[in-house]
Amino acid sequence: MRKSGHSKLHIAMFPWVAYAGSYKLAHKGHQISFFVPKGVQPKLENMNQYLNLIQFFPLLIPHVDGLLPGAETTSVVPLNQQKYLAFAIDQTRDQVEGILKVIKPDMVFYDFWFWIPDLARQLGILPIFYVVVSSMSMGLNTKALTKEMNVEEVMELPTGCPPSTVKLKPEEAAAMLFEAEDFGSGLSFRERIRTAVKGSDAIAFRTCRFSTVEEALPEGFQDRVGGRGLVYGGWVPQEQLLHHPNIGCFVNHCGYGIMWEFLLSDRQIVLIPEIGDQILNTRLMVNELKIGVEVERGKNREVSKESLSEAIKFVMDKDNETANMMKKNHAKLKQILSNKDFQEGYINNFIKALQDLVK
C-alpha cells in the first residue's frame, strides 16, 4: 500500500517509550528517530551505540502550573505530580508535527500520547502503540475504572489472564485507583491509554512464549557474593551492574523493563511494587514463577527496614531450601530467555510484521 519492496524501516519513537528495543532494531540496520526532552538528549547521546542509525530530536518542554521549573522526566517528578508533566508534553504537539514532516518515518511508536494517531495519519505515518508494561497489565484496560468503585470492584481481574496465582490485596485498591485520577488534558491515566490504543493501527508488546519452568534445563548456578556497596543517585548502567560478580541481590519495584533485566541476570530478587502493573508483575514472579520474594508491608503499605532486611537475608541464605528453589527456577528461565536463537527469532518476527504493515 505505501512502499513496495521496502526492507529497511525508519521508526520514530516518542518519550516514555522503552529504549532497549531501539538498539535491537538498530542492530538490524533500521533507522530510529527519538523524540526526547532537550535536557535528556546529551545523556542519551553519550549512550548511543549506533550513531549512524539512532538520532535524537530534542523537544522543548513548556512550563505548566504545578510542574517544577526544568522538570522533564519522571525521575524528578513524584507520581502524584506526573499529570502536569504529561500535560506539558501534550503541548509539544506542534514541535512533533514539524519534526515528523521533515524526517518522514514509516511509523511512530508511542504510548501515553493519545493525539499521535490523528497526527500521524494526517502525515501518512502509521501509529503503533508500543506497550511498555506487560500484556497482563494491559488486559486491565478492558475494564473501565472509576473512583466510585468499591474495593471488590477494583480488585476484580479479567478471567483467564492473569493466572489465578496473580491476585490483588484489598489494601492495594488505592494504588490501582491511581489510574482513575486526572492525568492531564482532561483524561485519567487509564483513559489516556484506552484512547491511545483505540487510535493505533497496531499494538506492539514485549513478551514471549516458552515451556513451563519444569520443562526447562535443570542446572542452577552458584551465587558470587562479596565486596562492599555504595549509594549513588545518578544514572547507572544497571544491566551491566546486574552482571557484576559482586552483586548478589537486586531489590527493585518490578517495573516491566527492570523485570526483563533481572530475569537475564544471576541475582536473587527482592520486590517492592508500588503501582498497578508493578503489583501484577510481582505476583507473577513470586506466586507463579517462584523466582523471588515480595517485601511484606505494614500499616498503610509502609516498608520497614526490618521487613526489607528479612527478605534480603531470606533469599541470600544458601541453606534455605525455598531460596535455593528460587535460584534454580530463575536459572531455568534465564537459560531459556538468554538463548540467542530464541531472542533473534522474536526480533526477526517483529521486524517482519512491521515491514508487512508498510507494504
UniProtKB/TrEMBL annotation:
SUPFAM superfamilies: UDP-Glycosyltransferase/glycogen phosphorylase. Keywords: Transferase. CDD domains: GT1_Gtf-like (cd03784). GO terms for molecular function: UDP-glucosyltransferase activity. It comes from the Eukaryota. Pfam families: UDPGT. Transmembrane segments: none annotated. Belongs to the UDP-glycosyltransferase family. This is UDP-glycosyltransferases domain-containing protein.
